[in-house]
Amino acid sequence: MTREELRSLVRTVPDFPIAGIQFRDITTLIADSRGLASAVAHLADLASPDVAAVAGIEARGFIFGAALAMQLGTGFIPVRKAGKLPVETISEDYALEYGAATIEIDPTLVPQGGRVLLVDDLIATGGTALAAASLLRRAGGLVDTALFVIDLPELGGAAALRSAGVAADAVMEFAGH
């Protein structure tokens, strides 16, 4: 499928979660088998061939990240919300628009000095992705690239990642937020 065909599979929900927001609902894309396979193929085309592992951000980053890891022949590292992993973890706090959150990883899963590709479904302000990149780097991974299915460029997340030394790319963009 072309990128434009994939774009047509993303549902826009107006005024969610608050008035004025145009929520880009990717569940309609992942419910379409051809769309899901094509989105993963487009991500694979953007990926470097020397990736040692793929890290996906909870929750929809797990869908795309795990599928991409399988396609690239690498392992998958889940970047989880706090308190979800049953082993010793390292964590990273980050700011949200109205508060704060924490993500965690099992550091033993990160290949020391290996290139870790960060993946999520959507990049908006970049707070979660920046925290994930920092966390993976602290665990010993080389994080220099992040891939997304959707970029909302007006919110500046991809630019923030680039400023932190992480190249960011997406399969498609949507104007607004």
TrEMBL record:
GO biological process: adenine salvage; AMP salvage; purine ribonucleoside salvage
GO cellular component: cytoplasm
InterPro entries given in the database record: Ade_phspho_trans (IPR005764), PRTase-like (IPR029057), PRTase_dom (IPR000836), UPRTase/APRTase (IPR050054)
Annotated EC: 2.4.2.7
Domain of life: Bacteria
Pfam family, one: Pribosyltran
Domain Phosphoribosyltransferase, first and last residues per copy: 50-147
Location relative to the cell: Cytoplasm
Record keywords: Cytoplasm, Glycosyltransferase, Purine salvage, Transferase
Alphabetized GO MF terms: adenine binding; adenine phosphoribosyltransferase activity; AMP binding
First-listed, main subcellular location of the protein, grouped into a coarse class: cytoplasm
Function description: Catalyzes a salvage reaction resulting in the formation of AMP, that is energically less costly than de novo synthesis.
NCBIfam families found in the cross-reference section: PRK02304.1-3, PRK02304.1-5
Subunit note: Homodimer.
Protein family (similarity comment): Belongs to the purine/pyrimidine phosphoribosyltransferase family.
Name of the protein in question: Adenine phosphoribosyltransferase
The species this protein was found in: Alteraurantiacibacter buctensis
Protein encoded by which gene: apt
